[in-house]
Amino acid sequence: MTFEHLVIHRRHGPDDLVLALYGELDLLTAPRLRRELTEAVTDGRDRIVVDLSGLEFMDSSGLHVLLEASERARGNDHRLSLRSAPPRVHRLFELTGTIRRFDFAS
For the chain, where are the E strands, in sequence order? Predict the structure, then answer.
């Protein structure tokens, strides 16, 4: 199944917010995720989880948004975790050496 856009599903828990991503996270769709993550950090949630399991593709634009969000969360005493990156998406974290900058939740 190929996606030409990004779908973001929000699931609210008592202390966390899960953003489940489906499709492609790239130059065209990264601004949408940036808005969602900015809103989530200012929403008062202690923990934000970004579920990457539904991504078909992610480029450096998407990675940049996640890095920004991670820094912003730390600065606001929040926690950002990533979950279930498919192999081709996980590889981007490995190739760029950014894998250590994220908490990968199970």
Answer: 6-12, 16-25, 47-58, 79-83, 103-105
